[in-house]
Amino acid sequence: MKETTKPPYGIIAILFTGAFVAIFNQTLLNIALPEIMIDLSVDAATAQWLVTGYMLVNGILIPASAYLIQRYSNRAIFIVAMSLFSLGTLFAAVAPVFSILLIGRMVQASGAALMMPLLMNVMLAAFPIEKRGQAMGLFGMVMVVAPAIGPTLSGFIVQTYSWRILFLIVLPIALIPLLLGIFKLKNLTFQNRELSLDPLSLVLSSLGFGGILYGFSSAGSLGWENPAVYLTIAVGIISLLIFTFRQLKLEEPLLELRVYKHPMFALSSIISVTLSMAMFSAMILMPIYIQTIKGISPIQSGLMMLPGALVMGVMSPVTGRLFDRFGAKVLALPGLAIVVFTTFLFSNLSMETGYYEIMAIYTLRMFGISMVMMPVMTNGLNQLPMKSYPHGTAINNTLQQVSGAIGSAFLVTLMNTRTESAARELIASGVPEQAATISAMLEGINYSFTVSTVIALAAFLLAFFIKKPGQAVGKIQKEQKDRVYKQRYAD
């Protein structure tokens, strides 16, 4: 019987490879956009849809992943997801015009959106509760290292070759896990339930999450006064409210929001949202500071952030093991203390702040985040009964997308507002316009980091309430796990 209870590492490795390619691809085009604009003769607002459209498809499909994971086997979902991703990559690589490139990018996203929830759900089903920290730590490593490599590799390739090479590199890497999935992947899920899909819930979810993601992600470039921003956010909020009430009334909801009756899951969601907002402050504001104020190239800007991401990737398995041994609270409190301290240091940037000083602070900050993100999320998921895993993972992934967009837009707006008011004051006092603009932007960035420090402090205070989930659902979960292990290789 020991053989049947051993986690299927080979199967998980195939899923990991697919997830790595999908996440790696998400940030690959950020630095390549200027070259694409020139090659395909489009403006910045049009080219930005390659990033915005990818994010929108993720935001729309991730909530539906809970239904798909319960309805279909992990093997079927993986093969369809990687097939869509590979097909989209091929379209993008050979795209003669921008519209084909955008279609390819969104087809890519439709496959990538299913990979994260699928992998998290399989990890929860495959590993017993006392070993999940280590498993989710490995998952966190993929989640962090892949998007960190993307911009750095993209900058090198675009500077040396064509942007199309980016997709030609990704395509064979995507085909490997697809072929492995077709010939080697076995089913880990047993529940393949005959669920009915509520079409109205799917429409409301798409309008809600899609509207909020588009509105907030467009606010920085279009401005809050633009109808495309405030109307889409309004439609998103209203749709989400109706969606929420509908889910609470349905017997088979698209997203089971009743998981929030579990206090540790609810607390982990709140901490993850506040931490995501604080984390995005550095990811968005630091390149502005480095490139605009310090005059450093985009590639060097990407290299500055690379050590922090690599440290976070290396630390993820370590913090996973520590989580299994000591629990989330022991890691979250010092980790969030580091995040608060380093964010405060970023709120005091000056014209003289050195490149390596910034790199050191950013790396230390990412070290702190590595102690918090996956342990807190895993602690919350551990309190859920097994039948709620697809819903818990879908909610967590959706909230990360939404909170990232909201946090970015909120902090950039604060920066712009403070920059404009400071520039007017400096120019009125006789400071030359160019010098006033740079000084005002620096003040705006520092102000946004100050607000981000307060957000991180809120997460730190919430961490005092973290508890290790009790074993109230332990007996039920054990029976369900035994069924999983016995039927794992049934297909």
User: What is the radius of gyration?
Assistant: 22 Å
User: How many domains, as an integer?
Assistant: 3
Helical residues, percent = over 70%
The CATH class assignment of the largest domain is Mainly Alpha
Count of individual beta strands: 0
- Share of β-strand residues: under 5%
Sketch the major β-sheet: none
Low-confidence stretches: 471-481, 484-491
Mean pLDDT: 83
Q: What spatial form do the alpha-carbon principal axes imply?
A: globular
- Fourth-tier CATH superfamily name of the largest domain: MFS general substrate transporter like domains
Terminal residue distance: 18 Å
Structure class: mainly alpha
Number of helices: 19
Look up the CATH topology of the largest domain: Growth Hormone, Chain: A
> What is the N-to-C order of secondary-structure elements (H for helix, E for strand)?
HHHHHHHHHHHHHHHHHHH
InterPro entries: EmrB-like (IPR004638), MFS (IPR011701), MFS_dom (IPR020846), MFS_trans_sf (IPR036259)
GO cellular component, one term: plasma membrane
Membrane topology: Multi-pass membrane protein
Domain Major facilitator superfamily (MFS) profile: 11-471
